Amino acid sequence: MTIGIWILGNQLHLEQSALLSCQHNKQKTPVIFIESLNYIKKRPYHQQKLVLVFSAMRHFAEELKLQGWPVTYEINKDFESSLNYWIKKNNITELRLVTPYDRPFLRLIESFKLDCKIQFITNNHFLWTQAEFKQWTDSRKRLLLEDFYREGRKRFNILMKHNKPIGGQWNFDKQNRKPPKKGLNTPTPLEFEADKITQQVIKDINSYQITTYGKIESFKWGVTRSQALQILDNFIENNLNNFGTYQDAMITGEYTLWHSLISPYINLGLLTPLEVITAIDNAYYEFDYPLNSVEGLIRQILGWREYMYGIYQIMDDDYAQKNWFNHQEKLPEFYWDSSKTDMNCLKQSLQQVEETGYAHHIQRLMVLGNFGLIVGVSPQAINNWFHSAFIDAYDWVMVPNVIGMGQFADGGILASKPYAASANYINKMSDYCKSCVYKQTQRTGNQACPFNFFYWDFLSRHQQQLRGLGRMNLILANLKKMDKVELEKIQLQAQKWRESN
Ligand SMILES: Cc1cc2nc3c(=O)[nH]c(=O)nc-3n(C[C@H](O)[C@H](O)[C@H](O)COP(=O)(O)OP(=O)(O)OC[C@H]3O[C@@H](n4cnc5c(N)ncnc54)[C@H](O)[C@@H]3O)c2cc1C
Ligand code: SF4
User: Fold this and answer.
1) What would the pLDDT profile of 38-83 be if each residue is shown by its tens digit?
2) N or C of the chain: less Cβ packing under 10 Å?
């Protein structure tokens, strides 16, 4: 019997479960990587995402060769035919791979006609297995992130003392919503020059006849585990101290603030969640960093990241098609081209995504996602855009974040109320409104901010459904008090905007 291992682009870790299972016989275990041109034609991916994934795969393949694994690397090929050719050539009787994290990709593999048996190995890239998460959900009446996060803290003994949370509280989020102020001394992100392998990938991508999104020239991401570790060290040394306090702030021209920038690496397997959490936990004791920052970051990974993956796993395949508000509008064209909007918050966020493939959480949720939600854009259209545009986008993480959290299309499985907001929020948390052609205080008229008329239009369109959520009652009471003539003007302006965009 000959086992052959297929390594997917987001499973790039030496200790991933398929490699571990054959470690004892590595010289005799063929390994294959495939870059499929057909697959990347499926959507207009950000060019930097393609560079990152392919370059990280090529570097990882080199690392495996050095370790003695017989590696085959196919470029610009088709998955199924490459696999069958390699299976035959190496007399492989069992194709082994870590179960893909993304369901559409798993379904694709299941549809292949392969000339040998296929064996999926349970992934060890998340802290909770599907079975463990399911067990947790079965024991609960409500699936609150906060409950799940506390369970994780106890289970992995992170920021705990004598079975109690350090600092006497589980969550310091209230301290983590400071608006930006003038003269903040923000850290410079760690960037890398393209080496020979990356330069070749850029050449390859440029030579393909494919539709893509974003810019390729400004590629500065790390592509190896060692660079990913440098990103983590740099974050701990220079950013972690202030990470919590300004976590939700947005500043013109400041793309990354104190955020970690680790999502591209952790999602590819170049970093593991436990090593990141352990490093942050250790830094708390070593450098005496503020607890709101340390706890804030640990909650993102031990809490949110694991929770989103768990929810994705237990939901049916049709979760991605949910549309609780029955939103059917098309995505405004400017999402694909930032020069086509004069709304400053959207322009700034979109420009940055075009240049880097990155925006931080609040830009994703409260600017890009929020606008789609209040306009009434189809959740699937928004999800498709996020999937194309972001450097760290994968089905397992986007479906819960975009469909569930950002668009509330699941009707409240993931969030207890929609993340809908007017210009008030954006003005409080950013400096964008100061240089905008629209007035953040106006709801109607030529200079009215579209976030305002769409916000009230959204509330009025869906007030029946929203009333059932409880947490929206205060704001719905304000809607009720609104002058009828003003509400009609708002609705008319919203409709006109939709028709002209
Ligand atoms: C609409 C929307 C779309 C998103 N799309 C993606 C996506 O495609 N890929 C992606 O990895 N994350 C996504 N997120 C989650 C989060 O915004 C990003 O993980 C984060 O902004 C990445 O930047 P960072 O590494 O600097 O994060 P930091 O702010 O430094 O946070 C640290 C880490 O925590 C984890 N994390 C934090 N929040 C989440 C979350 N909600 N879900 C999963 N992991 C989380 C990530 O691994 C992140 O790297 C999305 C969120 C929203 C609201
Ligand atoms: S005024 Fe409105 S459109 Fe302009 S930056 Fe502020 S929120 Fe965005």
Assistant:
1) 999 999 999 999 999 999 999 999 999 999 999 999 999 999 999 9
2) N
pLDDT at 470: 84
Residue 388 clears pLDDT 90, i.e. is over it: yes
CB of 92 sitting under 6 A from ligand 2: no
Instruction: Choose among 155, 408, 69, 401: nearest CA to 267.
Output: 401
The CA 60 to ligand 2 mean position distance, Å, reads 43
Helix spans in 67-162 (H)? 79-89, 103-110, 130-138, 145-156
User: Separation of 202 CA from ligand 1 center, angstroms?
Assistant: 26
Cβ-in-10-Å burial (0-12, 13-18, 19+) of 235 comes to buried
Cβ–ligand 2 contact at 425 (below 6 Å): no
Kindly list the structural domains of the chain, giving each domain's residue range(s) and its CATH number in brackets, ordered by start.
3-121 (3.40.50.620), 135-314 (1.25.40.80), 321-500 (1.10.579.10)
pLDDT at 501: 87
Evaluate whether 436 touches 423 at the Cβ level (below 8 Å): no
Provide the terminal-to-terminal Cα distance of the chain, rounded to the nearest Å. 60
Q: What is the pLDDT of residue 183?
A: 84
C-alpha to C-alpha distance for 96 and 4, rounded to whole angstroms: 6
The DSSP code sequence of 152-209 is: HHHHHT-SEETTEEGGG-S--GGGG-PPP-TT--PPPPP-----HHHHHHHHHHHHS-
pLDDT of 302 strictly over 90: yes
Residue 48's alpha-carbon distances to 101, 219, 272, 326, 366, in angstroms, are 21, 6, 22, 33, 24
Model confidence over 200-219: pLDDT tens digits? 999 999 999 999 999 999 99
Residue 371, ligand 2, Cβ within 6 A: no
Residue type, 115: D
Q: Whose CA is nearest to atom 5 of ligand 2?
A: 433
Nearest ligand, CA of residue 243? 1
φ, ψ of residue 318 to 5 degrees: the values are: -80, 0
How large is the average pLDDT for residues 174-191?
Answer: 91
Mean pLDDT of 230-247: 95
Residue-level pLDDT at 471: 87
Q: Can you name the residues that pair with 329 across neighbouring β-strands?
A: 377
Average pLDDT, the chain: 96
Q: What pLDDT shows up at residue 454?
A: 98
> With a threshold of 0.90, does the pTM exceed it?
yes
Q: Exposure of 437 by Cβ count < 10 A (0-12 exposed, 13-18 middle, 19+ buried)? A: exposed
Place of tokens 């680790």: 262
Question: Measured between alpha carbons, how far is 398 from 312 in angstroms, rounded to an integer?
Answer: 9
Query: What is the Å distance from ligand 1's center to 317 Cα?
Result: 22
Please give the Cα distance from 266 to 273 (Å, whole number): 7
